[in-house]
Amino acid sequence: MVASEAASRPRRGFDFVFFDCDSTLSTIEGVDELARFKGQFEFVSTLTNSAMAGEAPLEAVYGRRVEMLAPTPGEIAALATLYRLNVVADARDVIGALQDVGKEVFIISGGFSGAVRPFGTWLGVPVDHIRAVDIALAGPESALLATSGGKRVVVKEMLGDRCGRSMLVGDGASDLAAREVVDLFVGFTGVVEHPRVVAAADALITGDSLAPVLGLALTESEETALSATVFGRVVEESRIRIEAGEVAVGRGEMP
Fold first, then answer.
1. Residues of the chain predicted below pLDDT 50
2. What is the number of other CB atoms lying within 10 angstroms of the CB of residue 118?
3. What pLDDT does 255 receive?
4. CA 160 remoteness from chain centre
5. Helix-helix angle 41-52:58-69, to 10 degrees
6. Prediction pTM value
7. Less Cβ around it within 10 Å: N or C end of the chain?
């Protein structure tokens, strides 16, 4: 994978943009923060890292973590606040910019819905475009998102019969598992870097900001139009970071 030298070449853009939540839209892993509340951070974070790196199936550790932590409603509410306090740079403006030019934005997460949904709506994503895990693992969708291949199934279901190009931005193995049902999988290494994701991603964002998502998702005309709006700053930040080499693509050119 090489740094792009073709930021000015014509771009087709993407119509549907999916984001992971933990270590993508926020710099924390929610379940690890819940473990911190219980004094179990080191042990649980080891389990989380093994699943996100693809070293262990997510389903092999998910239920074990939930049973061990048994989070209370108050702890889930506190986690929603932590997500906001640790939001990744430019995440909110990127989502707003994408929506301003008619893109549909989704959040798909293996985190707990009681924390992910308030965070997602704060970011500006409609609640019906947010999928996460019910704390009781109730229902087939929640069960799916607690498994290694669940995001692939849920992304496909959310896209339904929509016509257009789709991309997914995430950091972990469960995100990578959905690569086959989107047109572009973008690995985000601004919080944590998993070698398996780096090796297999169609594109990588290697800085600590999500602004370069705009350089991948927008057409040139959409980018130009946004430059004259309240989103002009984040569009310029995207350009600066791409020119600095914070986007790498497998083919050496922008998709």
1. 2-8, 137-141
2. 19
3. 64
4. 20
5. 160
6. 0.87
7. N
